[in-house]
Design a protein that fits this description.
The complex is a heterodimer. Chain A is mainly alpha-helical. Chain A has helices at 17-38, 41-57, 59-62, 68-89, 106-116, 121-132, 137-144, 148-166. Chain A contains eight helices and no strands. Classes of the chains: A mainly alpha, B alpha+beta.
Chain lengths: 168, 223
C-alpha cells in the first residue's frame, strides 16, 4: 500500500474552501466505494488520496464540471482498477494486497471482491460507480463519454454475471 | 433481477464505518524544496536544540527558514506533520509503540535502504539528534537510552551500504509481531535494515523505518 501520497511543499497556498468542502463531503464515500476493489481499507484510502490530489491539481476547471463528484469517483475507480491489474501481475510480491486487514466486514467485502473479479475492468468500474458510489446512469455516461444505453447494457451484463457468482 | 447482489451491496453499505475521518487536506505539489523535509534535516543538524529553527511564510510560497541562537521549543523542531503522536503503545515488552500512519509513504524498493541508512547514520550522539531521526513511537526507547549520564550512541559506527541489508519488514522474523500489534498497513509501510557485524553476526541489529512525507524515521529496533 502506498499510503497517503500527500506532498506538502513550500509553495502550497491556502486551499480553496470549495475544494475543502468537497474533500470533506466525499472522502469517506470514495474510500468505501473503492474498498470493494482493493479489499484493504488502507489501500482504498491511498487510492482516494491520489484521486483527490488529481482533483486538486485541476480544481479550477473541475469545479465547473457538470459532475465533479462523478469525475472524482471515476478517477478513483480508474486508479484502483489500474492497481488491481498491477497487483495481478505480481501476485507473489510481498507488498501486494494479499494481506487482509482483520475488519468486521471482511466477509462481505471479500465476497464482493471475488465477485467483481469475474468482471471486465470496464464492467467493474461501472458497477462500482453505480452501486457503490450511487451515481445515476446519466452521470456515468457523461464522465465515460458513452451513451446511457451503453452503460445500461454494461450494467445488465455485469449484474447477470455477479448474480451467478454470488449465488455459487 | 434477483435480490442477492442487492442484498450484498446493502449489507456492505450498512457495514460502512460511521466515522471515517479524512486526513489533512492534500496540498498542491511543487518542484521546490519540501519545507518539512528541510525542517527535519535541520532538526537533525542542530542536534540538541541549541539553535532555534522556525519557518516563516506568507502561505504563497515565499517561506524562509530563520535561525536564532536561543533554545528551541520542541514544537518548532519537531513539526507534527513529521512527528505525529504514536498510534498506540502495545503491551509487547518494549516501551516503544506503533507509528502513526499519517503522511506515511510506501517505501520504494530501489531507494529505501539507502534512505533508511542515511537516517540511521544521522542518529548522532545526543537525545535530540536521535529523536530527530525517530518516530514518536520510538522516543520512549531513545529517552530510556539517554536516561543515564552517558551518551549510549557516542561510539556508534557509521554504516556503509556494504554493512547492511534492507528488506520489506514483511520478510523479517518480526513480521507477524508487527502485523498483530500494529496492523498490516504498518507492516506494509515499514522497511527493515539490518547491520551485519562481521565479527559477531549474533550482534546484528534490525532497524524498522517508515518514510513520512519524505523523511525516514526509525520506529523500532530489534534487539
Amino acid at each position: 500500500m502506498r499510503l497517503l501520497c500527500v506532498a506538502v511543499m513550500t509553495d502550497a497556498r491556502p486551499t480553496d474552501g470549495e475544494f475543502a468542502a468537497f474533500y470533506a463531503a466525499e472522502y469517506a464515500g470514495v474510500v468505501h466505494s473503492v474498498a470493494v476493489l482493493t479489499r484493504l481499507r488502507e489501500e482504498a484510502e491511498d487510492v482516494a488520496q491520489e484521486a483527490f490530489l488529481r482533483a486538486l491539481t485541476r480544481w479550477r476547471t473541475l469545479r465547473d464540471h457538470q459532475s465533479p463528484r462523478a469525475w472524482l469517483h471515476l478517477t478513483a475507480t480508474r486508479i484502483a482498477v489500474s492497481r488491481w491489474r498491477h497487483w495481478g501481475a505480481r501476485t507473489n510480491s510481498s507488498v501486494a494486497p494479499a494481506v487482509v486487514a482483520p475488519t468486521p466486514d471482511l466477509d462481505t467485502r471479500a465476497m464482493l471482491y471475488f465477485a467483481l473479479k469475474q468482471l471486465s475492468p470496464r464492467q467493474r468500474q461501472v458497477v462500482v460507480l453505480h452501486y457503490f458510489s450511487d451515481l445515476p446512469i446519466d452521470e456515468i455516461a457523461l464522465v465515460l463519454d458513452q451513451a446511457p444505453g451503453t452503460i445500461k447494457s454494461l450494467l445488465h451484463r455485469a449484474r447477470t454475471r455477479l448474480e451467478a457468482e454470488v449465488e455459487r | 433481477m434477483s435480490g442477492t447482489f442487492d442484498a450484498l451491496v446493502e449489507r456492505y453499505k450498512a457495514e460502512a464505518e460511521p466515522a471515517l475521518t479524512p486526513p489533512p487536506l492534500p496540498q498542491r505539489r511543487s518542484k521546490r524544496t519540501p519545507v518539512i523535509a528541510t525542517a527535519a534535516l535541520l532538526a537533525v543538524a542542530i542536534a540538541g536544540g541549541a539553535i532555534a529553527l522556525s519557518v516563516d511564510g506568507d502561505g504563497h510560497g515565499s517561506q524562509r527558514l530563520r535561525v536564532a541562537d536561543s533554545p528551541t521549543p520542541a514544537s518548532s523542531v519537531f513539526p507534527a506533520s513529521i512527528y505525529p503522536p504514536a498510534a498506540r503503545f502495545p503491551d509487547w515488552g518494549s516501551p516503544g509503540g506503533c507509528p502513526s500512519l499519517s503522511g506515511v509513504l510506501q517505501p520504494a524498493q530501489a531507494t529505501a535502504t539507502a534512505a533508511a541508512l542515511a537516517a540511521i547514520n544521522n542518529r548522532g550522539t545526543t537525545q535530540a539528534s536521535n529523536r530527530a531521526v525517530s518516530d514518536r513511537a520510538y522516543w520512549p526507547i531513545v529517552d530510556e537510552s539517554f536516561g543515564g549520564s552517558s551518551a549510549p550512541n557516542a561510539e556508534f559506527r557509521t554504516l556503509t551500504p556494504a554493512d547492511v541489508t534492507g528488506t520489506p519488514a514483511s520478510s523479517t522474523p518480526d513480521a507477524d509481531l508487527i502485523r498483530n500489534q500494529c496492523g498490516a498497513a504498518t507492516l506494509a509501510a515499514s522497511w527493515a535494515v539490518s547491520d551485519l557485524p562481521s565479527s559477531s553476526p549474533a550482534l546484528s541489529t534490525t532497524f524498522y523505518l517508515i518514510d513520512r512525507n519524505g523523511v525516514w524515521l526509525i520506529w523500532r529496533t530489534n534487539p
